[in-house]
Write a structure and sequence with these properties.
Distance between the termini: 117 Å
Number of strands: 16
Radius of gyration: 38 Å
CATH class of one domain: Alpha Beta
Structural class: alpha+beta
CATH architecture of one domain: Alpha-Beta Complex
Strand content: 15-25%
Number of helices: 8
Shape: extended
Amino acid sequence: LSILIFTFLVFFSQNALAQDIGILSEPVPAKKKPTEKVVPRKPLPPPRKAAEPAEKTKRRVILTIISDPLECEIYVNDIYRGTTASLNGKLIVPDLDPTVSYSIRIYKRGIGEELKTLALSQDQELKVSLKEKVANTATDKPNTSPDKPIANPDKNTPPEELVTNTLPTKQADKPIDKAPDKPIDKEPSNPINDTSVAATSNPVSNPSTTATTPTTKPVIMPPQREMVLINAGEVNIGSNSSIKADNFRPQHKVNVATFYIDVYEVNNADYKLFCDATSRTYPPNPEWDSNYFLTKPNYPVINVTWDDANAYAFWVGKRLPTEEEWEKAARGIESRNWPWGKDYQPNLTNLAGAEDGFEYTAPTGNFPEGVSPYGVQDMVGNVWEWTSSSYKPYPGGPDDKRYTLENEKYRVIRGGGYNVLAKGLRTAAFRFPGEFKKPYDGTGFRCAKSQ
């Protein structure tokens, strides 16, 4: 009996302990959750349709224009698109919309123009032959001739004496056209002083109002051409070329302040205004064109010294760009090999060779697809360009015996021209020393301005 009682007590005490620590405890009934209001679900949106393929790029077409005579100006919907080449008379106008009808104007100074309306459904070639204008209408002025290039004023002069690098300064008996071929940024016309005519046809009693000097020299305003703003920032100048003798080694960083730069090179027409306004001598003509300066107004001016270029820039209220400004405008912050990208493309610039259609210079802005990242035209090719910088080696670069502190007769010219091969230029970083007192028939310039 005592054993049974002991066994019962032991079992009871262990069971009570197990309940205390929760081993054999009964499960506590779960608390009832408060009833939630059933909110009706919103209907699911309809299943999404499969993504439609992106709209295909609109198809574009190319118009190739071949003109006779050569070097005709081409306008598409009244927008200047370039001049046909001087070798084959060809100009390619890319990126045209086949759904649009275009008005094509082909114009040659002294010859005439022709208008065409085209709807281009595919790439097309247009051949145009202009005929010289004949003054046979009642509206034609008597005793006048079409605006032809200025001919030899002295027919007795031997031809070999005409092909020189000199051009007589202003000659009163030569009709000189002061307007550029390409109608860009037209300046307001100078007012015509007709007081002498009025005094003759309708004399007035007051002599003080009568013009006594009918030959008064007109005031010539400096032309203001299109410029682009280039913001301040650090840029890589030069290139790490593998050729140790290259003077554009090594590449180095330079901080360039904000500045403006001309979109186009200075042309003959604008430089002629400068000469006429300041009585400066016209630049000499190149050997390959004895009438270049007066008969090609929209071509880049050449055969100007550094002093000439600097004087023109001062006249228009600008200055020459520094070497670093020029390179940033040409290569951008990416330090491109060429203004348009990494690889050379002969149809985007005018360098030596016939691939671009020009044996010598081309009209300014004739290669719009070859613009720099900032939209600056002709930064490589056509003509070399003067900068304001003295020529000296880059820090850590190869020593150049042409430069000495005592003899700073060189200024940096940039960009290459019609007289240099692409394999010789190799990159837009190429630089060359030009003697600032010498004119070169392959060198011109453009202007810049501080902000």
